[in-house]
């Protein structure tokens, strides 16, 4: 079963390579979607793929790269169905 989750990751997640880490982890898992910084200091991502792999990635978001300190991961289902490679989007 394929699913898509929209997530906001809060904490010390900018300036630590979180987007590049997220992209690498998602690509390794074969997920589609995107990640970007928000001006609020959060990181936003949409993860799409097999439910079990999306849930695995959702759990991994709590770790992040060295230097990250994640205080919250808020994930909600989304109707967005990204296709193709996982990519980094510009900051909003």
From TrEMBL:
It is an enzyme of class 3 (hydrolase). Keywords: Hydrolase. It holds the Pfam family Acylphosphatase. It catalyses: an acyl phosphate + H2O = a carboxylate + phosphate + H(+). The active site is at 19, 37. It comes from the Bacteria. Residues 4-90 form the Acylphosphatase-like domain. GO terms for molecular function: acylphosphatase activity. The keyword Hydrolase applies. Residues 78-92 have a biased composition (Basic and acidic residues). InterPro entries: Acylphosphatase (IPR020456), Acylphosphatase-like_dom (IPR001792), Acylphosphatase-like_dom_sf (IPR036046), Acylphosphatase_CS (IPR017968). Residues 69-92 are annotated as: Disordered. Belongs to the acylphosphatase family. PANTHER family: ACYLPHOSPHATASE. This is acylphosphatase. The lineage of its organism: Bacteria, Pseudomonadati, Pseudomonadota, Alphaproteobacteria, Hyphomicrobiales.
